[in-house]
Input
Amino acid sequence: MPEEKKSSAALTSAIVVLVLAIASYGVFKYVKKDSTSGVPVVTPPTSEPVVLPPVSTSVYKDGTYTVDGSYVSPGGEEKINVTLVLKDDVVVDATVKALATNTVSVKMQTAFASGYKTLVVGKKITDVTLTKVSGSSLTPKGWNDAVAKIQVQAKA
Output
């Protein structure tokens, strides 16, 4: 039995030495020497949260963009002037100005102008492609051309 006590005491001593060595390593890991005075300085981990600046997820720059969109009517090439105001990729305002020269095209652009706004304001610029508005099926092609140009200009 005395040999078992000796080996048990030796094992206990070895464990104590190992635990002390690990604890000492942990203490020295958080202590660094001040390079000017040689005095150890303890630097506790900071508990204050790190505040990061907000990350913009917008694809398009906010602003007002005005371009002419073009399309071909039976009377020839026509243009429509489109102005979009963008905020966070959303159309917050829109205006159109008829630039058509053909009498029928002027009438169709006027009809388009009376009905397009509710279809685009409040929607993402990527969701404002139009096909037929107030009976006009060609003027929306000019609108879509203008929107595509604005998307290129406004790319963030």
Observations:
- Residues 112 and 134 are 6 Å apart (CA to CA).
